[in-house]
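Sequence only, no structure available. Ideas?
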Amino acid sequence: MKRIRHYLNKENFRITKLGLIQSALASSIMVIIWGSFFIYNYQQNRQQQLSVELDELDHLERIVHEYVRDASNILLGFSDSESVKILLKESPETMDEVLSDIFLSISRNAKNYNQMRLLDALGMEVVRVDRSKEGSLKVVTGDELQYKGDRYYFTETKALGPHEIFLSPFDLNIEHGEIEVPYNPMVRLSMPLYGDNQEFYGIIIINVMGQQLIDELQASMLHPDELFYMTDENGYYINHPDPTKTFGFMFEDKKDVTIQNDFPEVWEALSENRRTIRTEDGRFFLSSSQMIDSEKLNSSDRSFKFIMQIPSNTWSESDVGLIVSNMIFLFFIEALIIIAALLLGSQQEKNKEYRNEIERMALTDRLTGVSNRHDTERILSRETANARRYDYDLAIIYIDVNNLKSVNDNLGHAVGDEMIICATQAVLKSIRETDYIGRIGGDEFLIILPHCAVLHVTRIIKKASDLFLKMGQQKYQMDWTFSDGVAMYDGSESSGDLMKRADKEMYRTKKAFKAMKDQE
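Reply:
I predicted one. Tokens follow.
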């Protein structure tokens, strides 16, 4: 009772009240400062995340384009081949055997081709090479050859002109009128074959296995919390976290299973070519692109759409919980202002780590761990400016790993990736701590050597080459080599011009290497 009466004393009550007001004011200021700082960093994180996500979408687009581009280049090669025209016109009796052998050779090196066929002018299969589910190749002959003159891809390809490519919808394979089970996603590319007098001989068609493409796209995803969708130009799912929702256009009871119906706001954003949208379902990152160069397409205009979704509960609930919990502590318990400050510092550190991680991902090549092209060009620009200002030697080496495509085709991409990693390690063991290496392309690297004379550059190249050769021999009994081009900074040129000089020198070395190999 004495303590209560003490605080009820008029003067003590005034001081206590003032202390409470001051504490409340201090807490309010802390809340405002903390809230503003949190919102700023939150927005910065989201902007960084947007950049990373859009880069990832661009990478997925490149994967699709590479799949389609390889097959379209083969078709264009057949269309331009005078030998093929001669076979079709003058040597039909040997055509089957020759083309079967060519189709087999192509299919052995292109593991993602399910089928290659030549159809005559009426739509009858003349030459056909199939790949079984186990991966073996078979030349189909006799009664197993089928009539395809009534199939949409034959009639639509027949209507095309020379050098035009028909690209089918991304759909499921149909054999003998039934959808193949288990499902076998497929993309068909076909091209008409014409003689010199524009006589129509038939079509050549390649079936590209879609499941391998989908698997590679999913393997490229960076964040396990994301949901990945891929649709055709009409909004039907080609890939969905729920496989039962895919290829709805091929089933009567799934005609309405589209992204338009599931996420109408997202579909509208795609139609407007927007790259991101936030809805009650979460945050979406979007990309739309044609599957092949537009000038090689017929009027069907095939395209695909990528959608990556971060569900709303992945981010918002934790953020709101953090803000509410800290506001409770700051408003009602003045003694915990210090704790709130510590929490703020902790949150700041987490935000910094998250930003650093996003920045590292945006500037680092995922396979090798060294700088990517964007970061390498930034470093080179900085070093050329410093070399110009402080007048010191600056050398760069442009490196191209030889025979990477051959290794990928014959031994698989896993070995090709190891080859790239070993090239990186060989260079890192050969340069100084003050030097830089960046991967600027699939098989290309740039080494930046500040304060380095020509004599030292030669030593670095030899050491790296010897190490790389030794790694290849130890791992696969192969002679791994790379072509290099050196350029010394002249004190006035731009970083881009310096890089072009090294690139040009590398291609000269590459050409000499290929000439030597051809002579062998």
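The first strand starts at residue 113 and ends at 120.
Hope that gets you unstuck.
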